[in-house]
Amino acid sequence: MPAFICTTCGTQYPITGQPQAACVICQDPRQYVNPQGQAWTTMAALRQTHFSTFRRMEQGLIGIGTAPAFAIGQRALLLRTQQGNIMWDCTSFLDDTTTTIVAALGGIAGIAVSHPHFYGAMIDWSHAFGSVPVFVHARDRKFVTRLDPVIHFWEAETYEVTAGVTLIRCGGHFEGGSVLHWAQGAGGLGVLLGSDILSVTPDRRLSFMRSFPNLIPLDASSVLHIADSLDRWPFEAIYGSSWDKVVPAAAKTVLALSVQRYVNAVSAPPAD
């Protein structure tokens, strides 16, 4: 029996004979149900049509994507450390070739996810590398569609996954929405893996949304909370949710300017 995967959001469900009637993540107002109706696929079917792509983002950081693009275009990041590699966010796709390449890069010691839209096939990924722990914030527990003993629900505002690699709960997009701070990134200046919690915009600043597809913005207080959560952490660069969403330099300043721009925009009529 397969573990069915929602074709709209890419989230994998438990192993069953029949798929669920509906995807709980797509039913949430932050996502959407395909206008053509709920549809499902399986990992076996995806392996007939898709493959993984890899890209070096900077020294010690490798992106892992899926081609052709699937679901919301999930892209994971493999963070390589001396204590073991950490996978940030998950794709919905995994095959033997992908496993072989990742194993050659040092494998995976743990998986950390930012929020429900990037759970993907996190349980399959964990099992493929020896049932490594999957770190999910407890505030998003109700969105975990495939419970498994590998899931570690963390509850604090920060959680050190390994030396120099720390999860920070920012909230915003989801209650448990988190970013990953990598102290040794950007040549030791620090990096944030921001996913959709910190959304990189075309002008290389940031924006903040409750729902991206449905264009529902966050309230000002939530955005200010995100800024407060990150205030004490040094970082030079931010890697967002997809390949081209990167703030390559001065990201700490960019965050401050972006928060001010956003709060001004949602708190008062535009000056022009």
Write up what this structure looks like.
The chain is of the alpha+beta class. It has one domain: Metallo-beta-lactamase, Chain A, CATH 3.60.15.10. 21% of the residues lie in helices and 29% in strands. The strands form five sheets. It has a seven-stranded mixed sheet, with helices on one face. A six-stranded mixed sheet has the order 11-12-13-14-19-20. Helix 6 (220-230) runs antiparallel to helix 7. The longest helix has 17 residues, at 251-267.
In round numbers, the mean pLDDT is 96
Q: Estimate nothing, just give the exact number of structural domains.
A: 1
Contiguous uncertain segments of 5+ residues:
none
* Global structural class: alpha+beta
Give a short account of the largest sheet. 7 strands, mixed
Total of helices: 7
CATH hierarchy, class? Alpha Beta
Shape: globular
Strands ordered across the widest β-sheet: 4-5-6-7-8-9-10
CATH topology type: Metallo-beta-lactamase, Chain A
Question: Oligomeric form of this entry?
Answer: single chain
- CATH homologous group name: Ribonuclease Z/Hydroxyacylglutathione hydrolase-like
Order of helices and strands: EEHEHEEEEHEHEEEEEHEEEEEHEEH
Task: Please give the radius of gyration in angstroms.
Answer: 18 Å
